[in-house]
Amino acid sequence: MYSPAQTRILHAALDLFATHGVSGTSLQMIADALGVTKAAVYHRFKAKDDIVLAVTEAELCKLEEALTVARAENDAVEARKLLVRRIIDLSVERKGFVRVLQNDPVVIRLLGEHAPFRAFMSELYATLLDRDDDVEARISAAFFTAAIAGTTVSPFVDDIDADTLRATMIELTERMLKLAPLKGARIR
Amino acid sequence: MYSPAQTRILHAALDLFATHGVSGTSLQMIADALGVTKAAVYHRFKAKDDIVLAVTEAELCKLEEALTVARAENDAVEARKLLVRRIIDLSVERKGFVRVLQNDPVVIRLLGEHAPFRAFMSELYATLLDRDDDVEARISAAFFTAAIAGTTVSPFVDDIDADTLRATMIELTERMLKLAPLKGARIR
DNA sequence: GTCTATATCGAGATAGAC
DNA sequence: GTCTATCTCGATATAGAC
User: Do A20 and B21 touch (CB under 8 A)?
Assistant: First the structure.
């Protein structure tokens, strides 16, 4: 799919995007991180937008795999549980970039303009929400996607290990999305 | 505090920052939004950073008022409840900018480097969290601040009115931060 | 307070040698 | 695949007139 040189560029770009945002990252910064010149980068990607596109595509690809696995489930609630867990795993693993995906203005524009991305996001949302979900469920879904994107980079949790973070996020989310009953509580 | 001209600049800048991010917003865009030239903007703020600083300061000021009110409460839990509600109100009222405050790389850098900002954030966090909060409470706090910042701008909730959004966010948050028992549920 | 005009710099992007 | 060199443009920022 990508040459070794391209892969190195994408990795460096991902890191820089997460720290400085897309607009705040220049091709010179990417080139410097790799110890090469701008021209070498342009040899592999003919424009900065292509790098942003490739990085975004690569991350969404991981989400797509999660969606495919989830959809193989017969039970809709189980499918949502699986999907949510995998999204949380990804956000912990790829700390920082989920925030970019969901909050960087350039990426947001890209996700809105690029038809395949739009189609994928619709599918993803459809699986996260039942067709006839009520308002609270939809707000919960918005709430939790935003939360997941931001939690891993919060100053509150700098010193908490990844496993604890992951487990607690899963619990909070399932409680919020009503995918599981509250631990130690009972609905009347 | 600020002249009328300055106030107009800050309002325009706030809008543009929320849409394009700080790095993605040029002084030309701000000037165009006001129908003046760049030089007119520079007459009031000697650098772009000063505009970012002023905008951030103005938003934090609103949070500071909320913090002062909350601290006047005797009961710590009531104080946190008040604070959380006010933060949610602000994020709904000033849709978009809370996301910038918490996610824009330029603002994050500013919040980290500017001593008064750092001090205020510490105070805010101290009120949101008890001194001896456990790990789950801290993750909850991170989770909910991230959630609040992102929810109002989510595509999930585009068509939901502000009041419903606000009320549901308050309920979700209080449930998460364990500030109130679950509606219709009872802890064993 | 606002303008025109301009200086300076860094960004994205290309040409062509090795 | 990488380099040097260069182009063009837009960005921050300043000078000085009205």
Answer: no
